[in-house]
Fold:
Amino acid sequence: MIGLRENDAGPAGGEWVGLVGETFEEGGWVHDALELEHRPEQEQMALEVAEAFAANEPLLFEAGTGVGKSLAYLVPGLMHAVSTNRPMLVSTHTISLQEQIQQKDLELCRRLFRAVPRLNRFADFKSAVLVGKANYLCTTRLAQAVEAKTELFQSAAQTELQRIAAWVATAKDGLRQELTPAPDPEVWDWVHADSAVCSRKNCNADTCFYRRARARIEKANLIIVNHSLLFAHIAAGGAGEKGASRGILFPDDFLVLDEAHTAAEVATEHFGLRISSYGIDHFLKTLYNPARKRGLLKRHGTTREQMLVADCIDSASLFFGFIRERLLTEQPVVRVREASVLPEFDDEPFKILIQLIGGLADRQKEGPAHDELDEARARLTTYHSGIRQFLKLSADGHVHWVERSGREGRVVAVRSAPVDPAPQIREVLFERDTAAVLTSATLTAGGDIEPLRRRVGAEGLRAIVVDSPFDFENNMRVFVASDVPMPTPGEARLSIDALADYIEWCATRVAGGSLVLFTSYTDMNQVAAKIGGALEKAGRPILIQGGSTSRTELTRQFKHARNGVLFGTDSFWTGVDVPGDALAQVIITRLPFDVPSHPVAEARAEWVREQGGNPFNDITLPDALMQFRQGAGRLIRTKTDRGVITVLDSRILHKAYGRLFLDCLPKKTFERMTVENRETVFKPFNG
Structure:
């Protein structure tokens, strides 16, 4: 892991802050060296971020689309990282932003630093991407697996193991993504680096791909990570677990968390408990698979340990099977309020097996075999204690639930999560004696940043909002359909019919493509069934979320089509970046209110009521406003983009809260349309 670095500010320790001002000022080096226009909003952000870095203070910064926030935090961040020899973390939520930073923004920074003599000392900065350990091959574990192949694998899997072993000679970074076809998951589990075996003690950077990647991370001035991996590592201990008094993930680091509007949701996922029937069954069968008579304990154990594994498999199967049959037959997610509804868990074989594996480990000499067994003992202990903890429902301030997923709903999981993650987020991000900058184009809801402050524990921290420099008044048009029936149960069919009619009509009247945003798969699929054929007949390729095609591939096809119609829910409201006429219209079918049916949302609503608040005003409405802003923000991505926002939810006109949604739009005027007048009212940019 990254070691504590000595600060080496030297004569440039404070000077770099002044250099940030000269870089972004009007007529400054960003303009001269990169030939980019001066943006006052970008200059303000760069200066505020630099001050936060220098003072080791938190900062919330909303930067509207087009501000150029990536450069505004990367340039001062790299200057600070190089000047002080401290690592900078940049965390993103979407792959597209991570790719933009890697492939475009960092190259711009390097060009800038090389072109300006006074910035030359920053030009050789080193960057790296932090990837989960399970993505890397560990050659030590590979050698172990090859040596024990007959005890671990059947013949087909042994052939796959040999293919992986042969690939090592030509592998660049040893990432499983490099291997084509993708490795068999069962075999990969025995050779990847996410194991106690892959350690400094057993591996080195000369032979192990993961240790080589760690060496790059340790030397990097900038480390790019995604939110999920960031919070997973933080939940596992972060910098504090390494004994550092300052730093978030690594000792003495500082952080920019971009796309920060998703931080609370991601943190909630990782600050709770999740144990699945698939996960525990898979792990136990790596110890010993009774059907195949193979596994770790085939090599290092005895018949006694192997029989105990079979008993553990049966015990877990009975436990999760009871939950599936008694609690999850009618609903895929069920909240658990009383421990009495849960089954008994026969943990005796787990307790005995934990002791026996510990004894096997102790009898091994120091080395990979000892570490593998010791880790098996630790993982089995974690599973055992996690289930016992869940059965007690003892985690204060947490909501507990069970859920089923996978094909035919056969995978069952027990879950818990904090109702209010804010105190933990505050502790791990804002109370680590270092800078943590949270930024996004949408931190506010209805012009109010307080809902986000409360969600991430940022009350009282400095917050700044700057608007987009784009000319929305001239480059955006907003149309609102006033005659679509409201989405009430009694008018559900009429509402779907009206949506289908409007979507087909509007999508075929713009020259470019349309992104159609839904709030439910049911609505989306019903509309697609009604008008999919008509759109195709009109020469409009229709792309629909939910099949085997990934979101990234759907977006690529949409860009390539130039006049396609993309139907999306959930994730398509955020992160889609399609500049130009390929995205000429965003159609919002419903205001994105989240029905608080999930146990976490339900528990949060109860908690707000207990605090004397109103769940709709304090949670549901702010969340919907933020997602609405995100959806509308997909339209104008560059200074020259033009397009239309079409809203098909008449509640925006007829409900008191509707004005808040209209105020979220960067274009402050809109046109009402109906089926009768839309021929004359609806005027997209087609010229």
Observations:
- The chain is about 45% helix and 10% strand.
- The radius of gyration is 27 Å.
